[in-house]
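look at this stuff:

>
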Amino acid sequence: MRPLHRFWPLIKDLQTGLLLFTGIAGFLSAAHPAGHWPTLLGLAGSLFLAISGSTVLNMAYDADIDAVMKRTCWRPLPRGLVTVREAVILGVALSALGVGWALLLAPLYGLVVFAGLFFDVVVYTVWLKRRTPYAVIVGGLAGGMPVLAGRVLATGQIDLVGLLLALGVLLWIPTHIMTFAMRHFDDYQAAHVPTFPAAYGFYATRLVIAVSSLTAALMMGWAAAAIGARVGLLAALGILGLGLLGLAVLGIVRPSPRASFALFKYASLYMGAAMLVIAVAV
């Protein structure tokens, strides 16, 4: 039997943790944790399983790509620490448990969780990722499902705030992924994965990132205002958004690998901080 620690990197704990936090924030945007701890724990457990399962399945499907790219060749599958078959079995099991648990909590919540998994694994990874740079849009759609799912579990419906939060994440995804694609341009070229920088050039990609960052910040601000966030929190969210936009514009005016890396790092910090604001706004 394989040591369990060999499987842990397959779930990409930092990425999974951030997406899980968006789901929790979505729930807390409509429900105070007092009196809702069992539901909140169910949300955390089901989302963790579903997100982890989809990530493992993505890793299994992309094992050949990971073997070619310098930044990913250390992962368990390319190194032979875990077989593709083992990864698929684990991914399917985690996904089934996560979606099944979600459906038991609430049918609509379960459907949103399943939609996120389907768009991430089937539509994004299997169908589009190796065919078009626009796959990033579908990736963003999948990334927005956890926060929408959390909101749905709290409210029992898909409402404007939930859609705004999901749209904010969707529009944030290009900032995260496209800066990464520029930083690791040669890797993606070697693996023959189409990206915006390869298709349209770095300058056009930076423009898209700037516009995407601005609109993502606006959607987050709108959502926060819609749930009645205090002025101080709205101001904090605005400052965070200005930082994101400022780094994006800096990448256009004074492009450099350092600027791109700073934007990539800040983008994750921004999303985590924005979701924290959403979580404590109620």
